[in-house]
């Protein structure tokens, strides 16, 4: 599975390592992802999502049901 947040769509970015002599080499900035299980009481089931830590904060604030509904309306989640 790719390194993409299933809620926000965040993925790896490309940038440079910059040395003291200002030599630049390509590098990748990966998203801070965690695999997490969530319980959905309306459907009485558990789901596993790969989410970024910023999405976890959003889920804690708004609730999993509201976040899933929003993601489905934006077309990010199936």
**What is the C-alpha radius of gyration, as a whole number of Å?**
16 Å
Q: Between the first and last Cα atoms, what is the distance in angstroms?
A: 16 Å
Give the helix/strand class.
Answer: alpha+beta
What integer is the average pLDDT? 93
- Total number of distinct structural domains: 1
Estimate what percentage of residues fall within beta strands: 35-45%
How many DSSP E strands? 4
CATH fold annotation: Ribosomal Protein L24e, Chain: T
The unreliable regions are: none
Strand neighbour order, sheet with most strands? 1-2
The CATH architecture assignment turns out to be Roll
Tally of separate helices: 2
Q: Report the order of strands and helices.
A: EEEEHH
CATH class: Mainly Beta
> What would CATH call the homologous superfamily?
Ribosomal protein L28/L24
Largest sheet: 2 strands, antiparallel
Short description, anyone?
InterPro entries: Bacterial_rp_bL28, Ribosomal_bL28, Ribosomal_bL28/bL31-like_sf, Ribosomal_bL28_bact-type, Ribosomal_bL28_sf. By secondary structure, this protein is α+β, with helices and mostly antiparallel strands. The chain has one domain: Ribosomal protein L28/L24 (Ribosomal Protein L24e, Chain: T, Roll).
Task: Write up this protein.
Helix content is 27%, strand content 36%. With 78 residues, the protein is α+β, with helices and mostly antiparallel strands. The chain has one domain: Ribosomal protein L28/L24 (Ribosomal Protein L24e, Chain: T), CATH 2.30.170.40. The strands form 2 sheets. A two-stranded antiparallel ribbon has the order 1-2. A two-stranded antiparallel ribbon has the order 3-4. Helix 1 crosses helix 2. It is elongated. The model has no long low-confidence stretch (mean pLDDT 93).
């Amino acid at each position: 599975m790719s390194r993409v947040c299933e809620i926000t769509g965040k993925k790896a970015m490309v940038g440079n390592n910059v040395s003291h002599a200002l030599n630049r080499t390509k590098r990748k900035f990966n998203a801070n992802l965690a695999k997490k299980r969530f319980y959905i009481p309306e459907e009485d089931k558990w789901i596993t999502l790969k989410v970024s830590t910023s999405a976890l904060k959003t889920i804690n604030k708004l609730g999993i049901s509201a976040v899933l509904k929003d993601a489905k309306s934006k077309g990010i989640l199936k």
